[in-house]
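Query form — protein Helix-turn-helix domain-containing protein

QUESTION: What is the three-dimensional structure of this chain?
INPUT:
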Amino acid sequence: MSAAVRPIRASLLDVIAREFKPYRFAQEMLARASNKTPRTAKNWLSGSSAPDIEALIELMASCNSIADEVERLVAERRKAREDTQCPGSPLS
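ANSWER: The C-alpha cells for Helix-turn-helix domain-containing protein are given below.
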C-alpha cells in the first residue's frame, strides 16, 4: 500500500467532524444519526475513538457525505490492490 494513502480512521473522523461539529448540538445530532449515546459521539468528535461497524452503517444511511467518504476510501483501497484478489474470490 502506498505511503501517500491516508489512514482510514483519520479520514472517517474528519468527515464526521466536518458534517457535525459546526452545529451547536453536534453530539446529540451525531448520537441520533448513529443510534449511539452522546458520550460516544463526543469521543468521535474529539478523535479519541471511531465508530464501530454498526454505527458506521447507520451514519452512512443518515448522511450522504459520510457514505461518499467511505465509498471513496473503498475505491482507493481497491486501486491500491489492483493486482491482488481476495483469497475467497472465484478465479476468473
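ADDITIONAL NOTE: Residues 26 and 61 are 18 Å apart (CA to CA).
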